[in-house]
Design goal:
By secondary structure, this protein is an alpha+beta fold. Helices cover 20% and strands 29% of the residues. The chain has a single domain (7-241), classed as Endonuclease/exonuclease/phosphatase (Deoxyribonuclease I, Chain A), CATH 3.60.10. It has helices at residues 26-35, 111-114, 133-148, 181-193, 220-225; strands at 11-18, 40-44, 63-68, 81-86, 92-93, 103-109, 120-126, 155-161, 167-168, 175-176, 198-199, 208-212, 215-218, 235-241. Helix 1 links the parallel strand 1 and strand 2 (40-44). Helix 3 (133-148) runs parallel beside helix 4 (181-193). Residues 121-185 form the Endonuclease/exonuclease/phosphatase domain. InterPro entries: Endo/exonu/phosph_ase_sf, Endo/exonuclease/phosphatase.
Length: 242
Amino acid sequence: MSSTLNRQNIGLSLIYHNVRGLRTKTNIFFNNLSISQIDIALITESWLCPSILDSELCDSARFDVFRRDRTTSGDAFGGGVLIACARRFGARRRFDLEHDDLECMCISIPARTLGSLCDLSIICAYIPPNQILPSRIQKLCEILSQLFNPHPDDHFILAGDFNLPCIDWKQGHPILLKKGSIIQNTATELLNLTAFLGQLLATLPGPFLVLGDFNCELMTDILDSLNIPSLIAELIAFELML
């Protein structure tokens, strides 16, 4: 939503990763963040539990770790979201934008630490593919409205796995497919709400998506430097310019 006059050409390096379980990959994750120049890591399907400490995941002197582990009994094992953000940005977690039945988390980075004119809000979400997916997408839309509407000049990133088979993300712009009226209506609401965000990563395989309102470019050199197990394909690195 930010005007081009507010862009300051400040580069941030980010990685989005659907890890499908960090419990057995904590050493790999820690080492990858340690050797890279990544500023912010966005993680879905973290599969973490309270017995795994933040200090096992990354250098606590360098990163603030924000976690939302799956604790509800209504869903199967798995899920969870995590954001690791460089401490120098002074990010804060928006607990006011969280819902008990939604694996979604938002952090806000103040403009002053970015050297920008606008704050940056980052939302990371995982929506399980089950029978209550439409109601969870509806709750996500409500949270996004609460975030977007009061702050029309801020920068935003929305990343996650939304498990919406009724949307084809691979065409450079989202295309709504016919997959049932309830989920189709919900998907339409999400698309309308996020229409101002460009689809940054149309090449990302599967139902994973990163949206934002700024210029960015993929950073394959970061990926080349990381130790990524061959079974993990849902990984992408990018640099955004604020």
